[in-house]
């Protein structure tokens, strides 16, 4: 089931072993599934006959060495994980850390889901975050306003549309040499009730789903609805 609406599920910090077996029931759904580090190898093995891409939710700003408890891009690379999310609001990276992580991930040839977001409606925050990209990354951008994350209420459709349009404009101006435009997704309290409205009214290329991706039945509905829209 290939949808024009790209779906990314972020399972955040939850114990998800039984849930991963449910995702295994989706052999032909193309989407990204971002799992906590300890599940990466298990999830890759479990989902190897599906079209689901297993990715990491973060990576260290350091290349290697004495950084207990951290996971570097090189480690992800070593275990065959090619996709990594960078810049999620819950990670609270500074602009410098964003830049460093993007460079490291890009150098390793990783595919990056890059989160940008605002605390309010300040477009300058988005610009600064977008400007951390070098243009050589393989990247999908996810716009996530802080107030919408985990709140149960997604951002106003018009606001999403405006911000996403501004992000596209900035990306196009900065990286005009790209053969294909960078995909821009929305994240923040996406659910089965609002997913279609968001894609219809806000002109996004995809959705980054957090809490709802932990409920397989609801996520299945999001997947079906997005497929119908394509
Ligand atoms: O990574 C996912 C986003 O932070 C959205 O999370 P949420 O759907 O629980 O609001």
TrEMBL record:
Where primarily located?
Answer: cytoplasm
Coiled-coil ranges per UniProt: none
Instruction: Output the InterPro entries linked to this UniProt entry.
Output: Aldolase_TIM (IPR013785), TIM_sf (IPR035990), Triosephosphate_isomerase (IPR000652)
Give the top-level enzyme category.
Answer: isomerase
Q: In which pathway does it act?
A: Carbohydrate degradation; glycolysis; D-glyceraldehyde 3-phosphate from glycerone phosphate: step 1/1; Carbohydrate biosynthesis; gluconeogenesis
EC number(s) recorded for this UniProt protein? 5.3.1.1
- Location(s) in or outside the cell: Cytoplasm
Which PROSITE patterns does this UniProt record tie to the protein?
TIM_2
UniProt keywords (A-Z) are:
Cytoplasm, Gluconeogenesis, Glycolysis, Isomerase
Q: Which GO terms describe its molecular function?
A: isomerase activity
Reactions accelerated catalytically:
D-glyceraldehyde 3-phosphate = dihydroxyacetone phosphate
Quaternary structure (record):
Homodimer.
Q: Which family does it belong to?
A: Belongs to the triosephosphate isomerase family.
Name of the protein this chain belongs to: Triosephosphate isomerase
